[in-house]
Design brief:
Elements: H1 2-25, H2 29-40, H3 50-70, H4 74-77, H5 80-103, H6 108-119, H7 123-133, H8 139-167, H9 171-194, H10 196-207, H11 213-233, H12 238-248, H13 255-279, H14 283-287, H15 290-314, H16 319-328, H17 333-345, H18 351-377
Length: 379
């Protein structure tokens, strides 16, 4: 048990070095954090076991997306444009992933799981970069965030279809799973827009009787984790739940308090979140399947850039903004890993295929902040 405290200390010391590394390279902080994670993980020194810090990493993702949600507005992110970009961001990568799987001689089931992994978008990675750059209020950022959340719901639908192939098609189960996700998001939008901010403010000033910042902040965190639980229990990513909680509280009179309360939590837990993305990588496992890794990474990157970027361009965005949207939808992160782990659990894919998915996720995650930084600097 005491080893865990040492590992947490190592992760935080490594995160400090990652911050310094990123600044020296003039790159987004997430790049330095992921790179130091590779160094302290099994790829180099094996100082930290991912399983020991995975809970802290998940908390980091939840806090990060809660903060992003606080700065968002339901009406600005959930639009027809975001839905169209999300659909393109699922369909084009899924087709590309399936074709890559077949081209490597895989059977239908593993090829479909690769398709599902490529259809996902990790909202956490791009959101962190956009927040760090101060671009969250831009049209491109709102479109990316909205499309990424919708993408998670559509990805759940794709995963339900793919997983049913192994056990036989179960249309009712697929519709039920997707229906739960839609109802949850719809209810969160309704409650968040009309009810939740008033309830929290009433709790602060009426139920307690006096303005109690600490207690009110605890309530906001309790809601964030409750939303995360509900989201994960119906098959969505937990960070989608925390994002919805943040958006729901964005109209509260205590929103500045919520920002202040999560500032130092973000510094610690979000750092662990990004370092852990590097820790999970094992370079030794990549050697045997490097051709598949290259093919998957290229397919993953190009399919999002082309599919989402082309759709954004058709929606009236400039060529430069459309490319930003495509790149912003590119990282797969933890979502692809969850799909891959599920594929292993039901025996649909092998460990080598999972390793390829892990590296595809890692490379798209590492490349996105770098490319976004370059593209925004030219605007």
């Amino acid at each position: 048990m005491t080893v865990i405290w040492l590992e947490i200390s190592i992760v935080l010391f490594a995160a400090i070095f990652g911050y310094l590394l990123s600044r020296s390279m003039r790159q987004p902080i997430s790049i330095g954090l992921i790179l130091v994670g590779v160094v302290i993980g099994p790829s180099v020194f094996s100082l930290v076991d991912y399983e020991d810090v995975s809970i802290l990493a998940q908390i980091g993702g939840i806090i990060l997306l809660f903060l992003v949600g606080l700065g968002s507005n339901f009406r600005e992110i959930y639009t027809k444009s975001a839905f169209k970009v999300a659909v393109a961001g699922v369909v084009v990568p899924a087709i590309a992933g399936y074709l890559v799987g077949l081209s490597f001689g895989l059977s239908v089931a593993p090829a479909l799981f690769i398709a599902a992994a490529l259809s996902a978008t990790s909202i956490g990675i791009t959101a962190a970069v956009l927040k760090e750059m101060g671009k969250m209020s831009t049209e491109t950022a709102k479109l990316i965030i909205g499309a990424a959340v919708i993408d998670d719901i559509l990805g759940l639908f794709v995963l339900s279809i793919v997983s049913s192939v192994t056990n036989g098609i179960q249309i009712l189960s697929i519709l039920l799973t997707a229906g739960k996700a839609i109802v949850f998001v719809g209810a969160a939008m309704l409650i968040g827009d009309k009810i939740l901010p008033r309830v929290v403010d009433l709790f602060d000033y009426r139920i307690i009787g006096v303005h109690s910042p600490k207690t009110t902040f605890m309530l906001s965190m309790a809601l964030a984790f409750a939303y995360s639980f509900i989201a994960e229990s119906i098959g969505l990513s937990a960070i989608v739940g925390s994002f919805l909680a943040g958006v729901s509280l964005a109209n509260s009179r205590n929103v500045k308090l919520f920002y202040a309360g999560t500032e130092y939590m973000e510094a610690i837990f979000t750092s662990v979140f990004f370092v852990s993305l590097g820790i999970i990588v094992s370079l030794a496992e990549a050697i045997a399947v490097w051709p598949l890794i290259v093919a998957l990474t290229l397919a993953a990157a190009l399919s999002k850039i082309i599919g989402c970027g082309f759709t954004a361009r058709r929606l009236g965005l400039s060529s430069g903004d459309a490319k930003i949207v495509g790149v912003g939808m590119m990282p797969r992160g933890e979502v692809a890993l969850i799909i891959g782990l599920y594929g292993i659990t039901i025996g649909a894919i092998t460990n080598s295929i999972y390793s390829a998915i892990v590296f595809m996720s890692f490379l798209t995650t590492l490349a996105t902040p770098f490319i976004l930084n370059k593209m925004y600097s030219k605007i």
